[in-house]
Amino acid sequence: MPRLRILAGPSPTDLNEIRANSGQATHIATDAFEGDVAVCIKNFADTEGNVHDSAYFKDRTDVTWSIQVQGRFLQEHSADEILFGNVFDRALPIPWGFSAILSFMQYMDPCMEQDLQSKEKPWALSPLMSTMTYFAHTRTDGAHQVPPFPPPKPVQEDTSQLRFKARDRPPELQDVHNPSARRTYCQNSEHRTGIILGPNDLITQTFATTTSPSVQQASRCSCQRG
């Protein structure tokens, strides 16, 4: 019987299968990023048909699945350089009505750029900070203790320690616990360019889909510009 396999790793050629809802993280390290990833899927059955749900869904009852990532970029980048999305290794079968589907996707995610009709490697990418469902940021140093991951409770929005090229925090981000305000602000490329992320910036983030049709989005995998 067909089943869903979840793979994670530092590159498309170096992947390992991970277990959803296990409460355990998979470590990923490259020359650009180091961190951990965990996946939760509601009512997910293992290879023997047993369903193991995660405590995550007790707090996020409207969520159907989530990808959680905690880590840091090893060199400084502006938020405009960091993307999140899909890159496929083969051409996609384009269904009838694809243009309407694509229009809806771009309505839901105005920053998305794509070439899903490519005959080689179709892709669809968006700026990470304009598309993440929840984004928590902490400034760290060598003595700072990294919090447990996956976290005991779902990630809550917190942009209070973000660094900006301009000294003052923009008025649009005064509410540091508002994910919608952060996503809206980061739809502007100039705004993203003014946010800096580097080795001392610990990011804990969640990309999730909900049962509400108005906020559902497509599944994606993370990557970086360039």
Automatic annotation (TrEMBL):
<dbReference type="InterPro" id="IPR013897">
    <property type="entry name" value="Duc1"/>
</dbReference>
<protein>
    <recommendedName>
        <fullName>Domain of unknown function at the cortex 1 domain-containing protein</fullName>
    </recommendedName>
</protein>
<dbReference type="Pfam" id="PF08588">
    <property type="entry name" value="Duc1"/>
</dbReference>
<feature type="domain" description="Domain of unknown function at the cortex 1">
    <location>
        <begin position="3"/>
        <end position="208"/>
    </location>
</feature>
